[in-house]
UniProtKB/TrEMBL annotation, chain A:
Protein name: ABC transporter ATP-binding protein
Record CDD domains: ABC_TM1139_LivF_branched
Span of domain ABC transporter: 5-235
Family statement drawn from the similarity comment of this UniProt entry: Belongs to the ABC transporter superfamily.
Keyword Protease: no
UniProtKB/TrEMBL annotation, chain B:
Transmembrane parts of this sequence: 20-42, 62-80, 92-113, 119-138, 150-174, 194-216, 248-271, 283-309, 321-341
Subcellular location: Cell membrane
Membrane topology qualifier: Multi-pass membrane protein
A GO MF term: transmembrane transporter activity
This protein's UniProt keywords: Amino-acid transport, Cell membrane, Membrane, Transmembrane, Transmembrane helix, Transport
Family designation: Belongs to the binding-protein-dependent transport system permease family. LivHM subfamily.
Major subcellular location class: membrane
Signal sequence coordinates: none
GO cellular component: plasma membrane
Name the UniProt record assigns to this protein: ABC transporter permease
Organism: Bradyrhizobium lablabi
GO biological process terms held by the UniProt record: amino acid transport
Amino acid sequence: MSALLSVSDAHVSYGKVEAVRSVSLDVADNEIVTIIGANGAGKTTLLNAIMGVLPLKGTTAFAGMDMAALDIEDRVAAGLSLVPEHRELFGTMNVEDNLLLGAFRIPKATAAQSFERVYALFPRLKERRKQLAGTLSGGEQQMLAMGRALMGAPKLLMLDEPSLGLAPIIVADIFRTIGELRAAGVSVLLIEQNAQAALKIADRAYVMELGEFILSGSASDIASNQRVAASYLGFQHEGASEI
Amino acid sequence: MNTTIMLFLLQDGITNGAIYALLGLALVLVFAVTRVILIPQGEFVTFGALSYAVLATGKVPGTAWLALAMGAAAFALDLFDARRSLRLKRILRSLALNIALPAAILALTYGLAGPRTPIAVNIALSLLIVAAIGLFLYRIAFQPLAHTSVLVLLIASVGCHLALQGLGLVFFGAEGLRGPALSSAALTIGPLRFTGQSLAVYGLTIAFIVALWLFFGFTLMGKALRATAVNRLGARLVGIRTTLSGQIAFLLASLIGAISGILIVPITTLYYDTGFLIGLKGFIAAIIGGLVSYPLTAVAALIVGSVEAFSSFYASNFKEVIVFTLILPVLVLRSLAAPAVEEEKD
C-alpha cells in the first residue's frame, strides 16, 4: 500500500526556534490518522507546514508528487485540504457562498455534487445556508469549515482541533462525521487534544511531545499504552507505573 | 442665495462627485483585496484621459509603449520566480499575458490610430492600454511585496505614483490636453442644462456601480475577490490565488481610473499631474467610507463633489483647502469610534 501523504524528516522553525524536529509520518488511502499531544507540542505547526502555510525543511510527497515547489493553492488543487484551528471562514458571506468558494478549484458540474454531499453530511448547514458565516454558533462554524474543505473533493482532509471550544454533544456529532468520511473515500489526518475521542475513530496514531514524535502505532495500541493513558487520556491503568 | 445658482452648483458637484465615487470605489476595492492604498490611481486617470486625447489627434500615445515595456519587466520577473521549476506551460502563459498582449495592443493602436478614428475605438484603445499598465504595475511593484505590511505597500505605492507621473510628463508634455466630448447632445430641464457629457458621467457611474455589484454579488470570481478581502488565509486554503485576486483588483482599478479620465477630459483640460489631485478626492471619499464601505464611499464622494463646487463658488482660493479639510473631522471621529487598529499579519 503506497502512502497518500508521506512526510519524512520534517523540520519547522520560527526563526531560530525549532518547533518541529525530524518528524516523519504517513497517511495511507482511506485511513484515519491522528496526532495527539499536549498544547504547544507542535501539532498545529506541523499541519500548517504540510499545507504550505509555513516553510518546511524535509520532504513531503502527496499522491506521488513532491510538494516542495507547490504553494498552498497548488496543494489544494492536488487534493490536500486543511481545516485550520481558527477555521478562517469568510465571516461576512453566507454559508452557501462559503461552501461555493470551497469548490473554487473544481469544475462547476462537480461542485453541484459536492453541495449535495456536504449538505447530507451536515443538514444543519442546509438550514442555515442564507445566514452569514460570522453569525453561526461555534459548532456550526466548525461544520462549515469542514464542509467548505470537503466541497473541493479532497483526497486528504487535515483537521486541526475540530473539537476545540465546542459542547460535548456537538463534538460527538463532528467525530461521527469524521468517521463517515472514510466511506466517502476521504483520508483524514486529525490533530486533537481530546485524545480519547480521536483514538476511538482513528486507525493509527502518533504521539507528539515538544516537537517530536515519541510514539506511533495502531490507535488501539496507543490507547492502551500506559504512558499515553496517564498523560493524555486522564486515567491510570490498573497498576500502571510511570515510565 | 439664488436657487438657480444653487442648482447649478449642485449639478456641477454631483457630476464631479460621480467621478470621485468611481475612483473611491476602486480605492476601496484595491485596499480590501491587496491592502495597497492606491496612490497611483490618479495616474490611471491621467493616462486614460491623455491617451484618449492624443489618440483623438491621430497619434499613438507613449503609454502604449509603456505597457509593452512594463509587460517585458513583468515577464522577466515571472521567469526569475520560476527559475527553479521551469514549466513550459507556465512560461507560455506568462509570455502570452505579458508580451503578446501588450504587443497586440500596441499593434492595434498603430493600426487603428488616425485622425478619422471613431471616438468609440479611441476609448477602447485607451482603456486597453491603461488596463494593461494597471495589470503589470501590480505584477512589478506589488505582487513581490504582497506579504509585507501596509506601510511598505504604501511606500511602494507612493513610489509608483512618482514614477508614473514622471513618465506622464515624458509622454504628454507639460501642456494640458483636452479630448473630444462623447456626445454633443444636450438636454434642458427648467433652468438646468445637462450636456451629453455630464449625462454620460451619470450613466457610466451608475452602470459601473451596478456592474460591480453584480460582479461581487453573483459571480464566482467576484465572490473569490470578496473572500480574499475578508480572509486572506481562508481564501488561499480553498485555492484562490492571492495574486489572481490582486491582478483583477488592479485591472478593475485601472479601468475605472481610465474611464474617469476619459469622462473628465472633454470637460476640463488635464495636465500630466492633474490626476493626482482628482485621485486624492476619491481617496477622501474612500477614507470617509473607512476604506471598507462601498455605499458610504459613494455617498461621501457626492458630498466631496458638492462641497468642492460650493467652495469654488464662494471661496475659490480656498477650494482645495476646504475639500481636504473635510477629512480631519472624519479622521478624528473615526479614531474615537474605532478601537486601536491592529496591523493585519499574514
